[in-house]
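Lab meeting prep.
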Amino acid sequence: MSFLHPLLLIVALVVTAAAVHGYLWLQRRRSSALAAAGFASLVSRGSAVRRHLPYGLILLALPVLLVGLARPQAELTVPRVSGTVLLAFDVSNSMRATDVSPSRLAAAQQAATEFVEDQPDTVDVGVLVFGEQALLTQAPTDDHGAAVSAIGRLSASGGTSLGQAILVGLGTITGKPVALPEDGAPAPELGYWPSATIVVFSDGQETGGPDVEAAAELAAAAGVRVQTVGVGTARGATVEVDGYQLGTQLDERTLTTISQVTGGAYHPAGDAAAVSDTTKSIDLRLTAKKEPVELTAPFAGAALLLLMLGALLGTRWHGRIV
């Protein structure tokens, strides 16, 4: 236990000692007066308890209250939602499809914005975009307004590399570049980051880049869960790219595999409202952290209880508050 104002403990000791000394002095004077008057033999042990106990309770309340004023603190293990959430957005051409209204990307932006606004300030949120390459556009921060602004600036173009998104996400979390090991080489040592989560918003249509399952296995080894949100429909839609009409549909198998490998979950969403509802089911990790908790209130409550008990006994036994 520590105290914000430890000097008040000295004050508490001095004041309490003075109060006890004063009470004992008064009792000695009273006893001397009774003895001089020939009434000392009339004071029994039972009456002595009744006489001293109310005063004793009130005197005990004094140091308890003064210790509370010193603002004691103790470190307690407090469960809370905390850590890092990295939102990874597929910004490939297929995300311009309108089988989710107003478009796949716009629906993902809306849902992600609501998700960020719902998070406590103990959760740092970052934003990553990926097409054929991946780029961190907002480092993880407790400034959720900055994350929302980064989400609002997204636009779609190019292909899709889910594997690259996971690798860049791992690099952001671990603070160092992450790449898949070459054939026969050992996996890179990334440490263990159980309080970090990557949430991928994508239609799952992979067009190239690093092997996505191998990247997911690296994330799993580092303790990083990948939650995937499928944005699109099984019936699909067409988008125009360089004058060509290209068909695109939701690839749930790939997104499910990524999440399962890392211990996360796949969240299907077929329209804008469903995407928004889906993000509400994304589980963040509950961690335990030691935090200083001020104990002034319990000390003040104990002092008040002692004062009330002393006053009650004094009134009951002596007909007045002692």
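Slide two material, second protein:
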Amino acid sequence: MTRLGGFGDGQTGGRGEELRSLALGIFDAVDDLSNLWSEAAQQASLRLSPHQLRALRVLESEPGLNLTSLAEGMEIGLPTASRLCDRLEAAGLVERALHPRRRREVQLSLTGHGRQVLGEVASLRSQALAAVLAAMTPAEREALSRGMQAFFSAQHTGTARRDRGGPHSGPSAAP
């Protein structure tokens, strides 16, 4: 783990320094969660790369996408998306079919096996996360839940403000 800083690192200063210290502590927590997420996924019966899992999740949420839409949604190049789908199709996780109305377009969708693998990964990840949450006190879990809700609220408020062209000065600027 790359430790950039964190809680109780002895730094003193104003509000900006306090927020930076908190951000660095959250950075470490997200890094740990990402590792937990990856390790849990690798325990599945079929090991897939994070890119492959992401493609499956996109296709699960938007079945019938064409290759171009998948590439755009994943922010990857078309050749990369094509190779990714070739591998997923060879593994029996994705199938390609001609679009019923646009015969030159190919639709991508999950197979039953693809849905099963995603379900297995989701279950393994949930179990790993539940084990960590079980080590916390009920008060700590409640504080984490409230903090995450506040984070998402502030993030969405800031995103809406930026989309309207207004400044974003943090959660305290909420209307």
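Talking points for slide two:
The chain has a mean pLDDT of 85.
The first strand starts at residue 94 and ends at 98.
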